[in-house]
Design brief:
about 425 residues; mainly alpha; Growth Hormone, Chain: A; two-stranded antiparallel sheet; 2 strands; about 0% strand; globular
Length: about 425
């Protein structure tokens, strides 16, 4: 039985990895084909940036409710329904004829569906991988990198195939995702949340009745933990950078180095996420090895990743050549990966297990609502100044995120640590 459970935890991780690949990869289809969509629908940079802003805002607004629902309902079906809904939104985006319709399909339907996935998936993985939590979550994070690279490259080249090439990209990846949701129905098991541990009452041992957390209770636990709040602020800074970078970098490479759509879409993510592969692998393994002796190491890994990425963001924005820009993106990616490796593991260290999914949802809510402004702001900066100015401004947000998490580690961590 123990061997079967051990084997299943890796199978579950593989199934959720593919779903995460699709979740993150289908997001990047929009950025990789942005200039084609802009031309086809005849909209301005600020207007096309608004689509990404609405998607990110919709995701951020609904994810805390998805997190609490994951603690209250069946996490398997939260994952399955989430994958189906957001892939349906992606698929439908390939048929739109106006900006307003794209906002509904990609912005609202896609954003709402994607919010179902991450809190439930990370909660399941956290429960199954108690001793290998950061490593397992780091492997999951690689699904993000692989999905963005693969889908971005494919979508960019499809966009060059003709006027409606961008529509084909949405239809293909949306259709694949719908099929994967069906596969998850049969392959993913119903992993129920762990029950509360028995407590000793004198000479007797009594089991504490399992009680589900309400949204108000989960929010109260989260907001009363200053370290958790600061981690959420740090995530908001990181998401602002991430969404702005992924939305506008392909366009920046087209404008600055005269790359075609396919090569621009590939180079905008390939080097960055290859670097992130290295960072997330090292960060997860090292923190797992050190956490028993140094409980604060996961937050310290977050700080290191954000702070060390700052100069490479500026270099990336103003690089004089494509090679220099790609090197800067790769080094930015290494340290972004270091941060990502302990993104949720840091939060799960400081809040009780019964609030893991809801806590992740609340944290993601703040991060994505705050970060949702980035694509529109960078679109405005591109119109008034240049894309390089907008991308360089992202460095300030990484620096601010590192400072906030440093304060959380310095002031609150030790007394908020949950055994």
């Amino acid at each position: 039985m123990e061997t079967r459970n051990s084997n299943y935890k890796w199978l579950a991780l593989a199934l959720l990895w593919v779903a995460f690949f699709l979740q993150q990869g289908t997001r990047q289809v929009f950025s990789a084909t942005l200039s084609s969509i802009q031309g086809s629908l005849a909209v301005t940079p600020a207007q096309i940036g608004l689509v990404a802003t609405i998607f990110t805002f919709a995701y951020g607004l609904s994810v805390p409710f998805a997190g609490v629902a994951a603690d209250l309902l069946n996490r398997k079906w939260m994952v399955v329904s989430g994958v189906f809904v957001f892939c349906l939104g992606i698929f439908a985006s390939g048929f739109v004829s106006a900006l307003g319709l794209l906002i509904v399909t990609y912005g609202l339907l896609n954003g709402f569906g994607q919010s179902f996935y991450y809190p439930s998936a990370t909660s399941i993985i956290s429960q199954l991988h108690k001793e290998t939590r950061a490593t397992a979550l780091s492997i999951l994070q690689m699904g993000l990198y692989t999905g963005i690279i693969g889908c971005s490259a494919a979508a960019g080249f499809l966009a060059e195939s003709g006027t409606d090439g961008w529509r084909t990209a949405f239809r293909i990846f949306g259709g694949i995702g719908i099929l994967w949701a069906v596969a998850l129905v049969f392959l993913l098991k119903d992993t129920r949340p762990a029950k509360a541990q028995p407590q000793s009452l004198g000479d007797n041992t009594a089991a504490v009745p399992e009680r589900k957390a309400s949204l108000g209770e989960a929010f109260g636990v989260f907001i009363s933990n200053p370290a958790a709040v600061m981690l959420a602020v740090g995530l908001g800074m990181m998401i602002y950078v991430d969404v702005g970078f992924k939305t506008w970098m392909p366009n920046h490479l087209q404008d600055t180095f005269q790359l075609a759509k396919g090569p621009a879409a590939l180079n905008a993510v390939l080097w960055h996420y290859l670097g992130a592969f290295v960072g997330v692998t090292l960060g997860g393994r090292i923190s797992d090895q050190l956490v028993a002796k140094r409980p604060s190491v996961r937050m310290e890994t977050n700080i290191l990743g954000l702070a060390c990425a700052v100069p490479f963001i500026v270099w990336m924005a103003y690089a004089p050549s494509l090679i220099a820009c790609c090197v800067a993106m790769a080094l930015f990616g290494v340290f972004r990966g270091v941060y990502d490796s302990n993104l949720m593991a840091s939060l799960f260290d400081i809040i009780p297990q019964r609030y893991h999914a809801s806590g992740a949802g609340i944290m993601l809510c703040f991060g994505f609502v705050f970060g949702s402004t980035s694509p529109t702001v960078l679109g405005i900066l591109k119109e008034r100044f240049s894309s390089a100015t907008g991308l360089a401004s992202l460095a300030a947000f990484y620096l601010a995120g590192a400072a906030v998490i440093f304060l959380a580690r310095r002031v609150f961590f030790c007394r908020k640590k949950v055994a």
